[in-house]
Amino acid sequence: MNAPRPQAWHEALHRLQREGLPHALATVVTSAGSTPREPGARMVITEDAVCDTLGGGTFEFQVIDAAREKLARGESGMSLEAFALGGRSGQCCGGFVNVLLEVFPGNAATLAIFGAGHVGNELVRLAAPLPWRVLWHDSRDGVFPAWATDQPRLACRHAADPQAAVTALPAGSHALVLTHDHAEDRVLVDALLKRSDMASIGLIGSKSKWASFRSRLKDAGHDEMALARVRCPIGMANGGTGGDKTPYAIAIAAMAELLPMVGNAERADPRGLEPAELRQLFN
């Protein structure tokens, strides 16, 4: 059997951007003297993989290390790395290379939706243009629509065991619970509250539904501070739906409630390198 062909940098970049996974793009922008690759050579780096090459040797390992350090720190944006191949990199060719590192930290957030009913469908559609990873769960067979099969940043998960599905969520996820079954909703909220690392928890339903859930969850050992983490009904922080209880209206209100929770993280300036740095490159 033939081994699979290694991905070129542009194929890897497209895949990682589509899936919203953390990665860095390294580009040789200038070189002088004897160097392994010419300006324009590119390489894509992730936490555990490298696609394409800048020429190999110590210089390439240093580029990979620099990129992975930035990924580990959650940095984003551009930086310029200078390599004197005979000095910093200890290579006999002795040239000089400037490498532009563009670091993409991945999805802005992870949204876990439990329930593939009408509201769940509208939520997933509304989330599609956003740079979020969406994990869509349902305990029933065959309920996910055909259009969700190959959507970027969307994973459809059959969650026969709701507690196990909650355990598998990444830390910092935003969870929305809106299944077809109240008992399943309660199991999910109970499991979510047992995790202290969820970014937010939302539950669909009426105030009377939450009053019933609240009493049972309190009996299950959750204190007032924990119960205050649950938003129910969802979408009320932004004024709710104004009486409109259609799935689309509920989904819009729920997403409007989530947006400021996700958007508070500071982002690096996306405009790139300062003009003075660019002038130095081409002098």
Treating each run of at least 4 consecutive H or I residues as one helix, how many helices? 9
What's the CATH C level of the largest domain? Alpha Beta
Task: Give the CATH architecture of the largest domain.
Answer: 3-Layer(aba) Sandwich
Low-confidence stretches: 265-272
Spatial strand arrangement across the major sheet: 8-7-6-9-10-11
Gyration radius, in Å = 24 Å
- The backbone outline, from C-alpha atoms, is elongated
Q: Report, as a whole number of angstroms, the end-to-end distance.
A: 51 Å
Number of strands: 11
CATH superfamily placement of the largest domain: NAD(P)-binding Rossmann-like Domain
Domain module tally:
2
- Round the mean pLDDT to the nearest integer and report it: 86
Task: List key phrases describing it.
283 residues; alpha/beta; Rossmann fold; 2 domains; six-stranded parallel β-sheet; 9 helices; 11 strands; 22% strand; elongated; Xanthine dehydrogenase accessory protein XdhC
Describe the structure.
The protein has helices at residues 9-19, 57-72, 118-127, 162-167, 182-193, 207-219, 224-227, 247-262, 275-282; strands at 23-32, 42-45, 50-51, 77-84, 96-104, 109-114, 132-138, 154-158, 174-177, 200-203, 230-231. It is an alpha/beta fold and 283 residues long. The protein folds into 2 domains: 9-106 and 267-282, no CATH class; 109-262, Rossmann fold. The strands form 2 sheets. The protein has a 6-stranded parallel β-sheet, sandwiched between helices. Strands 3-2-1-5-4 form a 5-stranded antiparallel β-sheet. It starts with 8 loop residues before the first helix and ends with a helix.
